[in-house]
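Input:
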Amino acid sequence: DSGVTQTPKHLITATGQRVTLRCSPRSGDLSVYWYQQSLDQGLQFLIQYYNGEERAKGNILERFSAQQFPDLHSELNLSSLELGDSALYFCASSVDPGNTIYFGEGSWLTVV
Amino acid sequence: KNEVEQSPQNLTAQEGEFITINCSYSVGISALHWLQQHPGGGIVSLFMLSSGKKKHGRLIATINIQEKHSSLHITASHPRDSAVYICAATGNQFYFGTGTSLTVIP
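Output:
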């Protein structure tokens, strides 16, 4: 158990819908990261927050947005879902950007 | 264009063999991570390197900043080492390799 909690673990939704994935980082960790892992594109970095502020942005689509709240939990919002958004979404956390990263178990999203 | 290249893509070894997985990157980095992903999907961070060499049990990771190259070595491999190993270069963002699928046969 990494100490990073992601909910929901599995989610099935229809095209065009919107979903929210939630992440609670390890106690004391200020940095939160979101990644997408699909069969055809492997692991991709989406976005990073540090203590509530956006720190780095990767290949995150405009239909996706994220935020980190004052209690340090984070949410990833995916809207206007397409079949290609089906993937495993990981959240990870670290004390700060220069330290070891701990991964959650992921949220499996299936868009039908 | 792949900022991070890993080799080999697939690797099968007999139990006890010494294993090396290579990672080359083309971007400027602040750190290089080695990750392990088991069937079922969970990811564990094995090492984070910015220079030199780190060792944890039977695992050794090295990085050569000048050559932009890192290696992960597994000594005395065991079937429980069977997993996908992924390197990730971190600078202004994360760049992932495509992973090396390792199978260790008893």
